[in-house]
Amino acid sequence: MNMQNLMAQAQRMQRDINQKKEELEKMEFVGKSEWVTMTFNGARMIKSVKIIKEGPIEDEDKDILEDMIQIAVNDAFIQINKAMNDKLGQYASALDGLM
Predict the structure, then answer these.
(1) Labelling 6: which of 24, 38, 55, 69 has CA 20 to 30 A away?
(2) Long-range pairs, 9-16, Cβ under 8 A, ≥24
(3) Which of 51 and 88 is assigned the larger pLDDT?
(4) How far is CA 90 from CA 78, 84, 94, in A?
(5) Coil, helix or strand at residue 31
């Protein structure tokens, strides 16, 4: 393989990676727990937070609410990581020797 072909292949790969990253950033991911639903985009920016617990939140429930937020965030991030791996995972092995 000559250098020109290698450079052209690298440019195609870079365009494809950028396109897939843009697609991923436009996707929405919903993290859920018993009390909280949080929506993120693929860039891990919060789009919405909803407290879905019925009734009042008492002072003693604040620790539980904090845990529920953490669970919802982690749930969404797991989904984002999976989607990122699904979309970009094919490039990990191709770039492995270059990093």
Answers:
(1) 24
(2) 13/91, 13/94, 16/91
(3) 51
(4) 19, 10, 7
(5) strand
**73-81 mean pLDDT:** 96
**Tokens at 7, concatenated:** 């450079």
Q: What is the pLDDT of residues 11-26, one digit of tens each?
A: 998 999 999 999 999 9
pTM given for the model: 0.77
Residue matched to tokens 């494809």: 16
The DSSP symbol for 33 reads: -
The number of folded domains in the chain is: 1
Residue numbers of the domain that contains 32? 3-96
In terms of phi and psi (left: phi > 0; alpha: psi -120 to 50; beta: otherwise), the region of 63 is alpha
Give the pLDDT of residue 98: 47
* CATH code of 63's domain: 3.30.1310.10
